[in-house]
Design goal:
The chain is of the alpha+beta class. It is about 45% helix and about 25% strand. It has two domains: about 90 residues; about 180 residues, no CATH class.
């Protein structure tokens, strides 16, 4: 892995304390859920799902009675239907309980990580409070959210999971979710978007072309055009190509498919195809990616 240039500040470092925080196993008390949640699971699910299960059971019992079967076969089938009627809502309740416990486990780990890094953790942010520019925040229909957000106290770096409904040209909506890491550069640059053509986020380019109004697609050298589409503010071709230089695009090729890069003003946004799970290996990879791209762009700044 290429190391950031020495005169460029490393944005994202991983310490032993950070690793311990990510490997932390929350206690049962930390993930047991609130009394309100448990009440919802116990009363609503058992009552509503149990009611649906009973209706289904009555239908099935009537269905069985339509067949000429020995009484012991009917009794056996009725017992199976009764067992399923009881088991179904219990299974769904346990499934949802485990899902909510998984969310609580992630929140507990990220709180510890944020404390170990001197950062801030926010579970949900339902507005662009970071002041991020970029196409993702412009193509959302209605509200959009960042989930499980980590950010530094200076407000110059953030990472989190983005989710929003996007309106296609056809008029239908599509849910887009991805991991986002964003950081401030040392100076402002024209708007540019480097799209990996095999990236799942390539749907932005295909479905939301209006988002690229004011941008033009530029030609790339050599084999890079097989991997990327580069869009930039009209009339800013020289600046854009000096920033999105071959060394930066080679970094993307080395990383593999699954990344887009957008620069607007003094923000650089990296879009990962999948939402972050915040495992140790994943956070290390995110840190390396952020530092490499920061170094590559800062090295190629036109000033």
């Amino acid at each position: 892995m290429n190391q950031p240039t020495q005169n460029i500040k490393t944005i994202f470092t991983i310490t032993d304390e950070n690793i311990k925080a990510l490997e932390y196993q929350p206690t049962p008390d930390e993930i047991k859920g609130s009394p309100q949640l448990n009440l919802f699971l116990n009363v609503f699910l058992i009552a509503v799902l149990g009611g649906f299960a009973l209706i289904f059971a009555f239908i099935m019992v009537g269905f069985v009675d339509n067949f000429i079967l020995p009484i012991w076969v009917k009794l056996f089938l009725w017992l199976l239907i009764g067992a399923g009627t009881v088991a179904f809502p219990v299974y769904v309740r346990r499934l949802l309980s485990n899902m909510f416990k998984g969310y609580a486990r992630t929140r507990a780990i990220l709180r510890r990580y944020a404390a170990s890094a001197g950062w801030i953790y926010e579970e949900s942010v339902y507005a662009n409070v970071f002041g991020l520019p970029g196409i993702l925040t412009n193509v959302a229909v209605g509200s959009y959210a960042f989930q499980n957000v980590l950010k530094n106290t200076a407000g110059t770096f953030m990472m989190g999971n983005y989710a929003a409904n996007m309106e296609k040209q056809s008029g239908s909506n599509n849910l887009l979710s991805c991991g986002v890491a964003a950081f401030k550069l040392s100076g402002a640059l024209p708007h540019m978007y480097l799209n990996g053509v095999k990236n799942r986020i390539d749907t932005i380019v295909r479905y939301y072309p209006k988002s690229f109004d004011g941008l033009e697609q530029l030609s790339l050298e050599g084999d890079f055009q097989k991997y990327f589409k580069l869009f930039a503010t009209k009339g800013e071709q020289i600046t854009t190509l000096s920033v999105m230089a071959p060394d930066l695009m080679q970094t993307l090729v080395d990383y593999g498919s699954g990344l887009d890069i957008e620069i607007e003003n003094d923000w650089l946004m990296i879009y990962f195809a999948d939402s972050f799970k915040y495992t140790v290996d994943e956070v290390r990879k995110i840190a390396g990616t952020v530092n490499r791209f920061n170094a590559a762009v800062e090295d190629n700044m036109p000033y």
